[in-house]
Write a structure and sequence with these properties.
The complex is a heterodimer of chains A (about 400) and B (about 400). Helix content of chain A is about 45%, strand content about 20%. Chain A is an alpha+beta fold and about 400 residues long. In chain A, strand 4 and strand 5 form a beta hairpin. Chain A is globular, with a radius of gyration of 22 Å. Chain B folds into two domains: about 200 residues, Metalloenzyme, LuxS/M16 peptidase-like (Cytochrome Bc1 Complex, Chain A, domain 1, 2-Layer Sandwich); about 180 residues, Cytochrome Bc1 Complex, Chain A, domain 1, CATH 3.30.830.10. Chain B is built from 15 helices and 13 strands. Chain B has a six-stranded mixed sheet, with helices on both faces. Chain B has a five-stranded mixed sheet with strand order 9-13-10-12-11, sandwiched between helices. Chain B has a two-stranded antiparallel ribbon with strand order 4-5. Chain B starts with a strand and ends in an 8-residue tail after the last strand. Chains A and B meet through helix 2, helix 4 and helix 12 of A and helix 2, helix 4, helix 10, strand 12 and helix 12 of B.
Chain lengths: ~400, ~400
């Protein structure tokens, strides 16, 4: 295994992790832009733009972009989050150059008006798709109530209204502003020759011009809120509870990962034994979202409407017991061992490695090998988690529910 | 160093399939038994799945929590599922914990406590999950479609129904568990391990497992349904299924190439016609469904009510148009994709372990990578198109879920 980090003259960071025994190579462009970076009236533009990058470049039509991926036998896709947008593909090693050329070409889209109009319908369909998922509807409302007017409260997909009102020129100006080498990175993982990757990066991205891009970090205080929603077409009671947690860059984020696993891992955790094992809920889980200079943890569950009060009492008392009495070393070992097996399998697959170190780069963290990540989890002690429980008020701040009318 | 494959039989007849990769950081295994939802009595749909879940409520010396601790202490990533024809148990561990993980699995299979209270908890959870399906329209549509497209008893819903879940007693569960036997069981192991030690170890545990074979149940022929489920949703869920050949058929990869031209990459027909050209849907795809003796093709799209009729018409037109064959370009893409999939699957020990038991269950053979490549290379466009021409999909099962029924235009 060998690791390489280069910065091209225009500021583009290129990160490579080469493993000769892997059967594939994965390549991704990651842009530090997402819904939190959007002006309110342009909410949803990052995600819409992600779709438009597949719709044509100065060299290729949209159909040709798709054809090229498929001719390479690639596994490929793209995604947009609150604070990042990513484009990736995985191919056999002999197609590395073709894949890099294609992805680099996509980063320079034409944003054709007709394609923009057609794709707008696809985005509206995607919004409608989530409208039919109560858990997604609730999540959105909970996030909004928790963040208030902080940019992290903005939706990734945008709203029907913001998408309908959006123009091609507004999108182009957002694109020109955000998609520059200083705000992007190129990552390559798997079976490849490092010298070749550097040469290809210069060949296909070396002439991109750049300018500095800043993200604004607004002050944030978690909102204490209770939201109760109903809808006539919903059958179950869905609930989400949110509270603050360490940011991605926080050295306590590994301890937090393990703590959240102890609280809410499906199959063996405090919430599992108290709620799922007893057959009281449809599911219950806890999650931790480590984000850029901010973090949030959530508990989600759904149950029969008549059980809701009892179920919520149990969930809250589990959190309270965790805060007051802490964890055992057996629980910590179990959670850590689950992570160790995951890391072993991650080390075998080029695409999973790509995401892992590309995300570190997106959040301004130094490159870490599987062994480095492993060591970070190995060093978490019971006391670290107890300290974390003292420092973070995990008592839910915003509790939102959605049930039948 | 390269990957080596082997196939051996334990004294009691259990087939063991191995794939040794010295570079792997993990080891994975799978155990498959030819016993699935199709064996559930009509009045007791869900029995196989409930029985499998109940194994985790305690086995050998452990109650459910102690068992979960045993599993987690070695970082054993365990998974189990009940399908139409088979049940399976699989897992991934660090190589040093492989034998321990196999031992735990053997205890779960052969010494479950099957506690009454555990059955009640699982019944409640299963019923809650069925009711929660009302809030997951796509999942609900697939659940209903499976029950209508497949002939009985392949149509049996593994999840059960609210009524049949209530009928399951501890006696039923005990009888179902008694059918877990070595007869027809297949074990696969993939990753980093010592073969001789592994075979010794398996012989000591799984090699002692006995029991009688489960009687085979026959399925009839598929019948055709067109049905609409009324629900106040933003999007209409559209599911279409038609009869095809099973994975065991010599022409399987010809049929599969046809489906790959329809769906897979973004340049495939359904994606281009429904999403790229017309912007009708976000999610649209077709996939191959296969059981041992029957195959089918499933088409899906989710789209808002106003665009639903046009979406259904385009879907049906594309599914029918495949009889005119695929192009050279589509053929080349499908070949490359198939080959890439065969090669890249080798990066995941879990995917290989789960793949091998299934492949053996269906074909009674596991291909080496060279054999898979040779099979793909031997396919010709003319043969595929000759196959597609004589296998025109005629009858479609169409299920829709949403605000208004649609016309199925013949």
């Amino acid at each position: 295994m060998s690791h390489h980090t280069w910065t091209l003259d225009n500021g583009l960071n290129v990160i490579g992790e080469s493993q000769a025994h892997m059967k594939s190579v994965s390549v991704g462009f990651f842009v530090k832009t997402g819904s939190r970076d959007e002006a309110m009236e342009l909410n949803g533009v990052s995600h819409f733009l992600e779709h438009m990058l597949f719709k044509g470049t100065h060299k290729r039509s949209g159909a040709e972009v798709d054809e090229t991926f498929d001719n390479l036998g690639a596994e490929y896709n793209a995604f947009t989050g609150y604070e990042y947008t990513g484009y990736y593909g995985r191919v056999l090693p002999e197609h590395l150059e073709a894949l890099m050329e294609l992805l680099a070409d996509m980063m320079k889209p034409v944003l054709n008006q007709d394609d923009f109009d057609t794709e707008k319908n696809v985005i509206l369909e995607e919004i409608a798709l989530y409208e039919d998922r109560p858990q997604a509807v609730l999540q959105r409302q909970a996030v909004l109530a928790y963040y208030g007017d902080h940019p992290m409260g903005q939706e990734i997909l945008g709203s029907k209204e913001s998408i309908q009102a959006m123009t091609r020129d507004q999108m182009d100006s957002y694109y020109q502003d955000r998609y520059v080498p200083h705000n992007m990175s190129l990552s390559v993982a798997g079976n490849f020759d490092p010298d070749q990757v550097l040469a290809l990066a210069n060949k296909y991205c070396g002439d991109w011009s750049s300018h500095p891009v800043e993200r604004t970090y607004d002050a944030f205080e978690a909102k204490v809120n209770e939201v109760k929603l109903t809808r006539s077409n919903v059958s179950r009671l869905h609930a989400v509870a949110l509270s603050p947690a360490p940011a991605y860059q926080d050295p306590r984020s590994e301890a937090m990962d393990l703590m959240i696993d102890i609280l809410g891992h499906p199959g063996n955790s405090r919430l599992h034994w108290a709620l799922v094992d007893k057959g009281l809920v449809d599911y219950a889980s806890a999650s931790y979202h480590a984000q850029d200079q901010i973090g949030v943890m959530g508990i989600s569950l759904s149950c029969a409407p008549e059980n809701f009060d009892g179920v919520m009492k149990i969930a809250q008392s589990e959190v309270q017991t965790l805060i007051e009495k802490g964890i055992s070393s057996n629980e910590l070992d179990s959670a850590r061992n689950r992570v160790l097996t995951s890391l072993a399998t991650e080390g075998e697959q080029s695409l999973r490695r790509l995401f892992s170190f590309a995300f570190d780069e997106l959040y301004g963290e130094p490159y870490r090998s599987v062994a480095d990540v492993l060591a970070a989890y190995e060093k978490v002690a019971v006391d670290d988690i107890h300290q974390l429980l003292k420092e973070y008020p995990f008592t839910p701040q915003t509790v939102a529910s959605l049930g039948p009318a | 160093m390269g990957v080596t494959q082997f196939k051996e039989t334990l004294d009691n007849g259990i087939m063991v399939l191995g794939e040794h990769s010295p570079d792997a950081f993990s080891s994975a295994f799978a155990v498959l038994m030819p016993l699935g939802a199709k064996h559930d009595p009509k009045s007791h749909f869900g029995l196989s799945a409930v029985t499998q879940e109940l194994l985790y409520k305690g086995a050998g010396p452990w109650d459910s929590q102690a068992l979960a601790t045993e599993i987690d202490q070695i970082g054993f990533q365990e998974g189990h599922r009940t399908d139409r024809e088979v049940i399976s148990f699989s897992g991934t561990t660090l190589p040093k914990h492989l034998f321990r993980a196999l031992d735990i699995t053997y205890t779960i299979l052969t010494e479950p406590s099957l506690p009454e209270i555990g059955l009640e908890e699982i019944r409640q959870l299963s019923m809650h999950q069925l009711m929660a399906m009302e809030d997951a329209p796509a999942q609900k549509m697939f659940y209903e479609l499976g029950q209508r497209f497949f002939p009985a008893p392949l149509s049996n819903p593994a999840e059960g129904t609210l009524e049949t879940l209530q009928a399951i007693t501890l006696n039923d569960v005990q009888s179902c568990w008694k059918q877990y036997t070595s007869q027809g069981a297949i074990i696969s192991v993939s990753g980093n391990f010592n073969k001789d030690q592994l075979m010794d170890h398996l012989q000591q545990r799984f090699g002692k497992w006995q029991g009688e074979a489960v009687p085979e149940v026959e399925a009839g022929s598929p019948t055709i349904h067109v049905e609409h489920f009324e629900k106040d949703t933003e999007q209409m869920q559209i599911g279409i299924a038609y009869d095809s050949i099973p994975l065991t058929h010599p022409d399987y990869y010809k049929a599969r190439m046809g489906v790959m031209a329809l769906s897979g990459g973004m340049s495939s027909r359904l994606f281009v016609e429904v999403r790229q050209k017309r912007g009708l849907a976000y999610s649209v795809f077709a996939t191959y469904l296969s059981t041992k003796n029957m195959g089918g093709v499933l088409g899906y799209a989710g789209t808002t009510t106003e665009r639903a009729q046009e979406t259904l018409d385009v879907l049906l037109e594309e599914l029918r148009r495949i009889e005119h064959g695929i192009t050279q370009d589509e053929f080349d893409k499908a070949k490359t994709k198939l080959k890439t999939n065969f090669i890249v699957q080798g990066e995941s020990t879990r995917a290989r372990a789960e793949g091998m038991v299934r492949e053996y269950f269906y074909r009674e053979k596991v291909w080496t990578l060279d054999e898979a490549m040779a099979m793909v290379d031997a396919l010709t466009l003319d043969e595929i198109n000759a196959y597609l021409k004589k296998s025109v999909p005629e009858k479609f099962t169409v299920l829709t879920l949403g605000k208004t029924p649609l016309e199925v235009n013949a």
